[in-house]
Fold Tetratricopeptide repeat protein.
Amino acid sequence: MPQKFLKHLNPLLTTSSPQQLQPDFSQGDRAISNPLYASVQALIRLRQYRAALNTADVLLTEGADDEEIWYLRGDALANLSCYHQAIASFQRALTFAASWPEVSISEAVCWLHLDQPQTALAACDRALEIAPTHAQAWLFKGVALHRLGQLTKAYRCYQQALQHQAS
């Protein structure tokens, strides 16, 4: 990859781990009604992924069944390198909130870790259908295309990532 791309993509690359893709949840009142939601988020921020996973599983056994808990569970699993399980959790989150691009991006990152760039590409395309200016979706689409040997398309995606990162 040309050095100029690496220099400009570095901020995107350093914020591409699953725990840093975590968006602000629109239903923040869940943390008020059940403080375990906030605990899972805090444990992930503290990189205590096993504890976050255990807490998410407690919430699920207590009847929590929504996009946020499944996303958080997937996030913890991805950071524990349990990519297949993480993907299953992200896909469950999408059954509740199909228009949440960060979930598809997190799924794509897992597919890339599993050396499945074609499947990662499809997840990025889903995210870009929802949010066509999402810089990280463009970045990981570029990574998937790069791994598929489609360098020209990959570099176009990297350029899109840079363009949308600035906006």
About this structure: The longest helix spans residues 151-166. The radius of gyration is 16 Å. The chain has two domains: 1-22+101-167, 24-99.
